[in-house]
User: Fold this.
Amino acid sequence: MIVELGNISLIAALAMAIMQCVFPILGAAKGNQTWMSLARPTARLQFLFVLIAFMILVYSFLVNDFSIAYVANNSNTLLPWFYRFSAVWGAHEGSLLLWVLILNIWTIAVTFFSRHLPEHFLSRVIGVMGLVSIGFLLFMLFTSNPFERLFPVPVDGADLNPLLQDIGLIIHPPILYMGYVGFSVAFSFAIAALLAGNLDITWARWSRPWTLLAWIFLTLGIALGSWWAYYELGWGGWWFWDPVENASFMPWLIGTALIHSLAATDKRGIFKNWTILLAICAFALSLLGTFLVRSGVLTSVHAFATDPTRGIFILALLVIFIGSSLVLYAMRAPSTKTTGSFEILSRETFLLFNSILLLVAMLTVLLGTIYPLIIEALNLGKLSVGAPYFNAVFIPVMTPLVIFLGFGVLSKWKQNNFIKFLRKMRALLISSVLIGVCIGAVFYAENQLKSIAGIVAALWISFTSLYSLFIKIKDKKDKIIAFKVIPYSFYGMLIAHIGFAVSITGITITSQHSVDIHQRMKVNDKIEFADYKFHLKDLEILSGPNYQATEAVVDVIKKDQLITTLRSQKRIYTVRNMPMTEAGIDAGFTRDIYISLGEPLDDGAWSIRLYHKPFVRWIWLGAILMAIGGLLAIIDRRYRLHKLVKKASSNNNEAVLTTK
Amino acid sequence: MNPRKKRIFIVCAILAGISIAATFILTAFEKNLMYFYSPTEVINGDAPKIRSFRIGGLVVADSVIRNTDDLKVNFILTDTINEVKVIYEGILPDLFREGQGIVANGKLQSDNIFIADQVLAKHDENYMPPEVAEALKAAGAEIPHKKNNYPK
Assistant:
């Protein structure tokens, strides 16, 4: 009975979504107040219905209702309750429900936190979000209903894929989806602005905090996914250029360009059309990501179970949404007036160059990701694009980006004096190169050139960022007040850029200087590797709630001192008879020691992988710093000056906004 | 500089940047394309001799032989018509097992033995890499059905 209630809730949500889309948008077009006023209540009701459906699915998992096919396929009575909970989004149908739930969370957040926006604008935003919701609810009801019944009802479920039985999977998908779906807000703001035909800068200011928030979630989601792959897959890898990783990385690249471009539009009234295009593009890539992950067109670690009809449905959605928004863009964008102007040597130029570079970077990833699909669709053979391609193209694109980043941070808006600018840059450039070369020469004998290049890039970003802070306070008498006066968004930018530098350092050093061996070992075998001695002390047999495991206990010794004892397990999950590796990791600020148990060989020996991975933590540390930076930018008090915005918007007077 | 010149400068800079990027990208792209071949295509001599490529098929039962003193392993891949011997050194993925569909990256030796530098098995025991499924279909074999997982 309760399952039918789930179905009914989804249908009711669809009905609400249709109302939420049709009435506010038409109302805004006709100036009908009553219709516009339907936006908020319908959005909230839709949220309620989706939430009910979601809770019913959660409940069905918790009580092991195997009459639902989705539950039977992804759960088991032996599964601990918290994994039964996260199994809700462990496969296609449930993760789609999570997608829609998160879309609704964003929508009602907009209804609550954007009350100061003009009614007609807010109605359009909510209407567009309703339209997105209609698409996905239809998709769910027609091709991937999580409440589909199974008959006969099995005695027990098929268990959750063991790979997903992990704390990383409980949190990674919701966070990532918050990012993906969050770009629908920026998209809706952009479409609302296009519909209104009024591309002044107000929409940019209003959508900035939302876009930043989505970007923060996406950053954290990608970092979490990378971290999860690192410890859970047992290969010590943290990024594989896997199509599904690319699917999340492409919106991130464009999202990064978007938050910068929004800032330029907001502050300087420039790049208006470009920003709109980026907002559409970011959401298009989110949809494309959903298509890639869920359509079954890919050979991927994430392509668990797939179905081509779903692919066609999402592809159609993608074409409809993106096609119509681009048509709208083509109709409205040419009439936009540029209000700001700037010289070549200005922050605007560097921002523009970098957002183009990010777009190029995205296109290279896109090419490598979908080219195999196109070739296969045209029946021209089957091929794949290897990771070396992505590495080979990404570095040349990122190099000018890093250089421009430093220039951009230190240059002023509008124009700069060329000589002064050069003088300011010279010392920083020379010092980052010199220090980088020294570090490379002292610590890294192998792959020296690449290591040095990465370190110089990181230093350049850090030095220019810190110097921009120094400029702000050097002439102030009272330094403490000077620090306090600086807006949060400036600190946000500083921390995010330094986070980027930290990630570059981590990526460079880990990829150039990680070492690993595959070793055959018996109990009491010792092996010297990467200045450490590894001693396989014991192999123990353990049993967990739904698996049997062999655990290797390895002492790690350096200069006769015990550093740590690592434990790595090879588990066999009994329901699916599926093996899984649990790596043993000693995490450190400057290095990880990582072991993972391979396979049992004859006469009691096992194959074991040993890794020494310097600075690998820095990759994720950098991402956390970027997220913190974004958060600081959101809480900047300028966004909280609702009164100012309200006044500006009611008068629809741009001057109030541009003068600060 | 007047606005017109400025605009021309910016457009030129962007075009120059994009063409450099495009050159890089396409060169790297061409170098790193990896084609997929089935065992039958390999036996027929369709597969490249020098370039790396991917091969996929089912691991033949009882064909996996491990060396006793190191981690070298060899096994036979089949699309149910033809078979290719694969040699690999290292630890095989968790889901590698006999009867399972797998994909390997590497190069072909002149004696039609495939030297793999990477072996991929997917993360779901029911999952068949699409290339392998196609290769099996092309060979006229029946694709193993998705197992019914529910415990009896």
